Amino acid sequence: MKNFHDAIYSTLLLVIKDCNIIIKMVKFMNDNHFVFSKTEEILDRLELLDIYCVADQVQAELVILGASGILLFMEMKKQTFRPTRDVDVNVLSTTNYDQIYELLQKVKIDTVGGVMELPPMEDFKKTELFKLEGIDFEAIKIYVPPIELLACTKIFSTREKDLRDLKETDILNLCCIEKLLDMVEEYKGYMINPDTNVHQLKEVLKEKGML
Predict the structure, then answer these.
(1) Domain assignment present for 27
(2) Of 98, 120, 145, which residue is a domain's last?
(3) N or C: which terminus of the chain has fewer CB atoms within 10 Å of its end residue's CB?
(4) What pLDDT does residue 162 have?
């Protein structure tokens, strides 16, 4: 009888946990001004996705990109990064591509496959990614790229905001400079848009005392 009561109690705790997450996330998703400023807030959004995936029996491996990926990496290294309005991911693998894209859209998580020119998506290989540990998602696994790959998404961007991130944050300081410059030289050969931040990279590195 004790085991039965323990099982009921555990089930109730899970139901309460899931309800609290959903209530909190509905509030977030109805707030057009909401920004993600720390890892916990990004994980809350991913946890909602996990709940939907469990319900629909979908499994997926996702890599976090963009500012949300940098924020997660920086906090792993006890550093801070600016808030962001978006959680950007790419789907590494899944049991149902149509369904996972539908669920990502439902929880307002953006997919960047095909949108980002460089680095190419095939360079975000699972063997070189950091798996987020210590989180109890059931249906999804979350990975974060090395900081050099994340920095390259800023370097080969045309946005002024990304150039400011390179100048004003510690993204470049956390990179292995030799590895970063090797990647930059390789990607230059595949660059289609000539007006990217790569042309300011050496100046930024000199200003930071890294060259």
Answers:
(1) no
(2) 145
(3) N
(4) 94
